[in-house]
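For the sake of clarity, the format in which proteins appear in this thesis is described at this point. The fold follows as a row of integers, each naming the local backbone shape at the matching residue. One such record is shown here in full, so that the layout can be seen directly:
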Amino acid sequence: MTTKNIFFSFTHRLSVGAAVALMALALGGCAGQEGRKELTTGSIPKLSKPVQSMNATELAAAAENIGQAYERDPKNREAGLNYANLLRMTGRNEQALAVMQQVAINHPTDREVLGAYGKAQAAAGQLEQALQTIGRAQTPDRPDWKLKSAEGAVLDQLGRASEARTRYREALDLQPNEPTILSNLGMSYLLTKDLKTAETYLRSAADQPGAGSSVRQNLALAVGLQGRFQEAETVARQELTPEQAEANVAYLRSMLSQKGAWTELAKADDGNTN
């Protein structure tokens, strides 16, 4: 199993309460934590609690509730954005993309809509299309750091690490010390097996004010992949409910115990800075 496959296997399986997916961090709309921001209100039904504290069952119920509002008024911008966001958070990426296609048709020049559409495309595996959509949303005279970071995440998915890191650093120029950007930059190095550099950026991200659970879960992964399992578990348990923490730690143990995966990562070149 390659390092990239290990990473995406982990992010696919990790409990929804503290997802560490690179795409969720980079493209969520920032993305409190990207991908878990408060839903826009107005005509949208109010939720019983913030989405970042919901478990999988509660997120599914929230998606159904918001989905009914979207069905009543499919041209409603906020309903579409919120519904697509919840669909992505529950792993329904193809449906989220279909929703965002309709929202983009109705709001073709809206930067937030285009950014969310690019996120949905990337989550559904349409990476080249996502780059084009995010590029349309960006404006040279008023560059958006979220879109810069989003573009970096897609480039990392395409294996274009050098270009991705350039975008992250451009994003940091616009928003210094933003934890989600630092986390994405760290995960970029993790994908190329430079675990020490990855940890440096992820630890910096976790130390920033406003760093959320998903940033800390990324740090836990980088620490665990270096064999410091107890430290990784301690980090993974922070700011989560006991149930979420146990689910994350259990899978972290399972994934890191795979002999082939660990052997490959243990042989990674400490000086690798691709």
Q: What stands out?
A: The CA atoms of residues 36 and 51 lie 6 Å apart. The radius of gyration is 18 Å. The chain is about 65% helix and 0% strand. Residues 1-42, 268-274 have pLDDT under 50 and may be disordered.
